[in-house]
Amino acid sequence: MNFHIITLFPEMFEGVFERSLIKRAREKGIININLIQLRDFAIDRHGTVDDKPYGGGVGMLLIAKPIFDAVRSVYPSAGNPSEKSTNKRVILLSPRGEKLSQEKVKKLSKLSEIILICGRYEGVDDRVHSLCDEEISIGDYVLSGGEIPAMVLVDSVSRLIKGVLIKEEALKTESFTNGVIEFPQYTRPENFEGMKVPEILLSGDHKKIEDWKKEQARKLTKDKRPDLL
């Protein structure tokens, strides 16, 4: 999987993508992350990539041309319906986009290439949307830019790609995988400040333990996330 991230702040990604699972996946060549500095495609020698919006308003908008040029530097046919690829997606991280879900993450993990556009300031020139296959939001709130949503998307998609997780069987019981959130889990000690590990988990009866986990997952989902049922 190749991720291309178009951003004004590529340095924001360095710590996140140089640790843990993402770092190992990059070292193994399972995923590749290409950070593209939007100012490299500025409209002038001053590095200009933003301008005032027509009609007035507070703040600045990212200009369309630098974004088009940045995207087409890695995907030349982007925005051309007749040459649309089924294995590539151009995604704008935007508060007006579809909310990211585990189901969406699964679909994205099947692609070979994802180009992410990180907005900034008051957003992007609306003509940028003609270049994109879709818009994605990570929640109903506003952030300073698309960098953090891009990190969320890369992490959530990457862990579903074969070879990224050491124990891939863990994916089968994770929250949202089967329409419920994950069951409660415990580790040592058995008794911590009077709070004890459920006896069933100490019984060694694997069938009963599995039944307990499924039942607890359903109960937790009903209590915490009834919208999933």
From TrEMBL:
| Protein's UniProt keywords contain tRNA processing | yes
Enzyme nomenclature, EC number: 2.1.1.228
The record's annotation in InterPro entries points to: Alpha/beta_knot_MTases, tRNA_m1G_MeTrfase_C_sf, tRNA_m1G_MeTrfase_TrmD, tRNA_m1G_MTases_N, tRNA_MeTrfase_TRMD/TRM10
Localization terms from the record: Cytoplasm
| Keywords assigned | Cytoplasm, Methyltransferase, S-adenosyl-L-methionine, Transferase, tRNA processing
Annotated positions binding S-adenosyl-L-methionine? 119, 138-143
Q: Which reaction does it catalyse?
A: guanosine(37) in tRNA + S-adenosyl-L-methionine = N(1)-methylguanosine(37) in tRNA + S-adenosyl-L-homocysteine + H(+)
Query: Cellular component terms, GO, for this chain's entry?
Result: cytosol
Name the SUPFAM superfamilies on file: alpha/beta knot
Alphabetically, the GO molecular function entries are: tRNA (guanine(37)-N1)-methyltransferase activity
Instruction: Determine if Methyltransferase is one of this entry's keywords.
Output: yes
Q: Which domain of life is it from?
A: Bacteria
Any idea where the tRNA methyltransferase TRMD/TRM10-type domain is? 1-229
Primary site of residence: cytoplasm
In its UniProt record, which GO terms are filed under biological process?
Answer: tRNA N1-guanine methylation
> Which PANTHER family does the annotation name?
TRNA (GUANINE-N(1)-)-METHYLTRANSFERASE (PTHR46417:SF1)
The family database entries (NCBIfam families) matched by this protein are listed as: PRK00026.1, trmD
User: Can you tell me which family this protein belongs to?
Assistant: Belongs to the RNA methyltransferase TrmD family.
Described by its record, this protein's role is as follows: Specifically methylates guanosine-37 in various tRNAs.
> Whom does it interact with, and what assembly results?
Homodimer.
Recorded protein name is tRNA (guanine-N(1)-)-methyltransferase
